Amino acid sequence: MLINEAIVVGDARKYLTVLLEPSTAADARSVEQLTEHLRVEVARVNVDLARAEQLKDFRILPRSLAVERGERTANGKIKRNAVVSAFAALNDDAAIAKHVRRG
In 3-state terms, what secondary structure has residue 3? Predict the structure, then answer.
């Protein structure tokens, strides 16, 4: 498995983007290999979705989500609002290249 978590964001945007937390297995792949694999998987998922529900873009998070940063609960569940806030720059296309491996 190459992805630990997938968080869909789309608030106040024209389209949906999915934030992807890579697994340690993903680290063994080159950025190009990982990006291409994820592009294929997102396209596969989109086939079963209505147009308004389709994921138009994805971002690979530069680090794992952590309890210490308030992005996960003590039992490992994602705190969605905290993740969206922590990676707010992902919603700004000009800042994306500085903060994530682009998908």
Answer: strand
Rounded to a whole number, what is the distance in angstroms from the first to the last CA of the chain?
17
Name the β-bridge partners of 72.
78
What are 62-90's pLDDT values in tens digits?
Answer: 899 999 999 999 999 999 889 988 888 76
Burial class (CB in 10 A: 0-12, 13-18, 19+), 83: buried
Q: Where are the domains of the chain?
A: 3-102
Q: Which has the closest alpha carbon to 36: 61, 55, 60, 54?
A: 60
Domain 3-102 indexed as CATH 3.30.300: yes
